[in-house]
Amino acid sequence: MAIPNTKIAEVFDELADLLEIEGANPFRVRAYRNAARVIESYPSSLAARIEQGTPLPRLAGIGKDLEGKIRIIARTRGLPLLNDVAKRVPPGVRELLQLPGLGPKRVRALQKARGIESLAELERAARGQQLRSLPGFGTRTEEKILSELSRRKDAPRRFLLSAAEQSAEPLLAYLKGLPGVSQAAVAGSFRRKRETVGDLDLLVTCEPGAARRIMEGFTGYVEVAEVLSRGPTRSSVRLHTGMQIDLRVVRKESFGAALVYFTGSKAHNIAIRNLALRKKLKINEYGVQRGPRRIAGTTEEEVYRALGLPFIEPELREDRGELDAAARGTLPKLVTLEDLRGDLHGHTIATDGTGTLGEMAEAARERGYEYLAITDHSRRLTVAKGQTPERLRQQLRVIDRMNARLANTGAGLTLLKAAEVDILEDGSLDFPDSLLSLLDFTVCSVHHKFELSGEKQTERILRAMDNPYFTILGHPTGRLIDRRPPYAVDLGRIIAGARDRGCFLEVNSQPDRLDLADVYCKSAKESGVLLAISTDSHSPAHLGNIRLGLAQARRGWLEPRDVLNTRPLAELRELLRRRRPRG
Ligand code: DGT
Ligand code: CA
Ligand code: CA
Ligand code: ZN
Question: 103 with 171, same domain?
Fold first, then answer.
């Protein structure tokens, strides 16, 4: 599998960070950072081109030298230069970078002026009030560092699903490539696609006698920072990213039972164990037994069948009614990536995106989409270059021309004319109806006044929904996972309000938003409110985040019919228009 552009960009970003900490020439640092931005927003896979032997496109600021490095990264997933630099920077210093608010500049200052080379040394210095006098720091920074350090100690660290993927996918590929490995899978919360993951639980089966060498291969993986335990069938390591991994080698005839057990959740496991007891069966990670006889264990299907149940998708295994539904034959047929015909939330360079209209369209076409909505920001959001009515009108003309061209070339893609319109404090929308009426639909979002009381915030959004040009509520709670709590809002009333008015709710796929969260997706579905699974892309590459919103939707039991963007274009247009005044 070709390495994605975002991963290539990460290598350059890390290189830039480390060089900056070392005090390298600022132009050199900037060149790597610039390369990272250009690469991550390039709409198609550079590594795939390299694999196919297609010449690389001309990329702004990327000359022969950088191109050579891109080729090395694409081929080896690494860069010798980065390894060299990484060896020169102490690992403790690299860890400092993980604290929010500590970029390479500050890390360099800490190291140079205070000799701080680890989190422990940082804590000592902050407690001794030795940071506040550093240029660019101050009392507040010092306090923030202390509170962040104590937060990390209290809360066991969890990783965003997207970050967990970056550890899990290459490791899984590596394990599959080890001699003697037959099957390998990630279980645990990662497989259930929870929005955050505590640790990764890996399972492999192997040929007889290979277990020991596989364990050696695992603990010798290049990303391993620390081996926590090592045994013949189970080992644990911590990667440089901080992610902990448990690997278990299981027998082929137990793979299904182990997969069920270690996929969990714990609550689901307990529920199926109770069900098994009622059926006079015994279930554990080795298999299902009736008396002395083993009746299942090789595959998950077999294990569930032994319990009298159909296969239950991992995303549903949370003991939220899935066993009853399975027993009654009413499990949802979950929406899949193939069901999604387009994306209803994307930004361009007209506001805070990094891709042009053409680049966004090309990326959507490459995904085989029927439609992509362009939803640049409305004027209030000045930090994101929100568009004036004049600029929006201009953009609509460009979209018309582009659609004509797309139609002529038989691209099969239509750009939808939309905007992400701010919901103002009084519940009015940031553009006049006369302008909104020119759009195919709107995504309406709260971007300020997060601190309103629950009552006021709920009223504000419901009032906005009263406007017939309100179509989809964008990122409905405003939360940023682990960074910003949802604003106070009564989602029960919002869901009922959306149903009564015929509005839709968004499942925003940004890795740290995933908003609406799974349980609210389920209540919306049960109320008959359709959801839009959207990326809120700010670059062509972000269109790929759709898998994360999809995961949240599947955890919310959504089927294709519950999702707005499974509709073919003509049907979608009908739905988007249904609240509007005729004429
Ligand atoms: P995480 O890592 O906190 O994101 O969540 P999980 O679900 O991956 O939990 P983890 O890593 O502690 O354990 C993996 C699976 O192993 C878990 O989903 C279910 C199973 N498991 C762990 N402990 C227990 C237990 O005490 N009882 C049962 N029945 N299953 C357990
Ligand atoms: Ca886990
Ligand atoms: Ca675990
Ligand atoms: Zn947006």
Answer: no
